[in-house]
Specification:
about 55% helix, elongated, two-stranded antiparallel sheet, alpha/beta, 2 domains, about 575 residues, 10 strands
Length: about 575
């Protein structure tokens, strides 16, 4: 991807947003004084709910005498000193805490009981918009964050639309938030979005920002670009600007979008890259500039310098998005590698030896190919698990549910190969305690949690298991340890500790077979399992396993799900 030839799509996104009647409906709900919409009062805070046939709008307003403070307060402090735990679901190992505007969050805490009542009354079957102007928008953002805990990553997320709202949190909050749930409308003439934040570097925007003027609008998502625009282009230009002007703005932008009358004309962009040109157009739209250079100079903004700076920030943002690990985009490629390992498994079976033992011996070029597939899959799933663990709790739970089936198949297919590598040179032991990678442990933990939630029972259901992967992906590690113990047993026939461990493994094998959880490839003549059994059978303690292993026909019956275990 050649970033110098990239194009910023904000100038295209803006007409899509403004062509909808959604902004007008939302502002009408804010400005409405309809008698049928009853405002609910709290401490320093008002809200009203407008129910329509297909839409619910919740509007927040703050009392005129509200005295905002610029101080940020951490979520840990709120938890420890205010007993406020509602932000915990956003915290992760990577982001253990974040900070929010103290004045705004204090309003939420003071009205928490009534806000909880509001949450319970909202019609969940309708799309929900939470909105507010100025500081009311800041409260709307915080209320939406509280709603996300309940709604998680489901399809019916609320949409928060604010008008001229100040920033409410730091960079860590921005990193923890679902940006797609927030749309902030900001006029180039409204100084309020930065008025309450005299130290902008402490506050970081999150969500989509729609910067608008009388002549056009544009969208920015990159928080660094948004911050630069807020600081550089929105100064003390609020003379004559009244609250009602947002209503005029959204109606005017809606008309322009429908008439496709958005792009400034007559600008000289011959020496610009496509990215620089698109950003220049965005700035003209957001600031209400035309080709009239006197007007540009009147604004006292070096638009060329600003466009160049935003170009640098947008390139950085694009690169970060490109480099960010996205499990879903790469999953199909990983499915191809899983299919290759399935083929490898069948190939090894045709040789009379299981894929575990083939991989461990690594004598052919096909085995070397399998090493590459194994490593690619291991890297992918290691990153995937790390990504999931970095997500907020609610989102992570939904994330791992979606990926549980693929992750379980991967673990059962690939971990045996890791075990084979671990024991290949005969110098290492105790894989489960010393060699097992964390992502396998986490994937297994997710599966166990899922079983508990669904109250699944493995039971003793008989089934054809010819093509299954062994359920316990550490089966082979336990087998390798049993093989090592057999060597000790030969030399120390009276070693009771060794005998006890082998008896435990024998019981484990029998119970696994009884539940039809082991791949029948363990019965191939060249397998490590048969090597173990031939060494151990004269010491066998479990006569039921010995009886099963005494007749090769039992192996076929087991494969078909036709063997009756006592």
């Amino acid at each position: 991807m050649n970033l110098t030839q990239s194009f910023n799509s904000g100038i295209v996104q803006a007409p899509f947003v403004t062509s909808s009647s959604l902004l007008s409906k939302t502002w009408d709900a804010i400005s409405s004084r309809d008698e049928d919409v009853v405002p609910h009062g709290g401490r320093g805070l008002f809200w009203k709910v407008r129910e329509e046939s297909d839409l619910t709008i919740v509007v927040f307003e703050v009392r005129n005498d509200f005295d905002p403070q610029q101080k940020l307060v951490s979520s840990s402090y709120l938890k420890e000193n205010n007993n406020f735990h509602r932000f915990e679901f956003l915290c992760t190992k990577k982001i253990p805490e974040f900070s929010v505007n103290e004045s705004a969050v204090s309003l939420v805490i003071d009205n928490l009981e009534k806000l909880d009542e509001l949450k319970s009354k909202i019609n969940s079957s309708h799309p929900l918009i939470v909105t507010g102007h100025g500081v009311g928008g800041a409260i709307a953002s915080l209320f939406t964050v509280l709603l996300l805990d309940r709604i998680g990553s489901g399809k019916k997320r609320p949409l928060c639309i604010t008008f001229g709202s100040p920033l409410i949190g730091d960079k860590k909050l921005q990193e923890a938030i679902w940006s797609s749930s927030f749309l902030h409308v900001v006029s180039c003439k409204d100084s309020l979005p930065k008025k309450l934040n005299p130290h902008p570097s402490a506050y970081i925007p999150f969500g989509i920002f729609l910067f608008c003027s009388d002549t056009g609008a544009t969208c920015f998502e990159n928080p660094e670009s948004v911050l630069e625009l807020l600081v550089s282009s929105i100064g003390d230009q609020s003379q004559g600007f009244e609250v009602a002007d947002y209503g005029k703005l959204v109606r005017n932008l809606n008309r322009k979008a429908i008439c496709k009358d958005f792009t400034p004309r007559g600008l000289n962009l011959t020496n610009s890259t496509s990215l620089n040109a698109s950003i220049y157009l965005q700035l003209c739209a957001a600031l209400g500039l035309t080709s009239d250079m006197q007007e540009i100079q009147h604004q006292k903004i070096d638009i060329n310098a600003l466009a160049t700076k935003l170009e640098t920030l947008e390139k950085k943002f694009m690169f970060q998005k490109k480099e960010k690990f996205d499990p879903s985009k790469r999953l199909n490629m990983k499915k191809i590698e899983m299919a290759k390992l399935e083929w490898y498994k069948k190939h090894c079976k045709s040789l009379g030896i299981g894929y575990y033992d083939c991989f461990k011996k690594a004598v052919s070029t096909i085995d070397q190919d399998a090493v590459q597939w194994q490593r690619e899959l291991r890297i992918y799933w290691s990153k995937m698990v790390e990504e999931a663990e970095m997500k907020p709790q609610t989102e992570a739970a939904a994330f791992r549910t979606r990926w549980l089936f693929a992750g379980t198949n991967f673990r059962r297919m690939v971990e045996p190969l890791d075990i084979a590598e671990y024991y290949a040179n005969g110098l290492r032991k105790d894989y489960e305690a010393k060699g097992r990678s964390r992502h396998y442990i986490v994937l297994e933990k997710w599966l166990e949690e899922d079983k508990k939630q669904k109250s699944d029972s493995n039971g003793n259901t008989r089934k054809n298991v010819e093509l299954i992967l062994t359920i316990d992906s550490c089966f082979w590690a336990k087998l390798e340890e049993a093989l090592l113990l057999c060597g000790q047993l030969e030399n120390l026939k009276e070693n009771e500790e060794v005998k006890g461990k082998l008896v435990d493994f024998e019981k484990y094998v029998y119970e696994s077979l009884k539940r039809y959880e082991v791949s029948p490839e363990i019965f191939l003549k060249g397998s490590s399992y048969m090597s173990w059994w031939n060494k151990y059978k004269r010491f066998a303690d479990n006569h039921r396993l010995a009886s099963f292993m005494s007749n090769p026909q039992h192996f076929d019956q087991y494969t078909e799900g036709a063997y009756f275990f006592s």
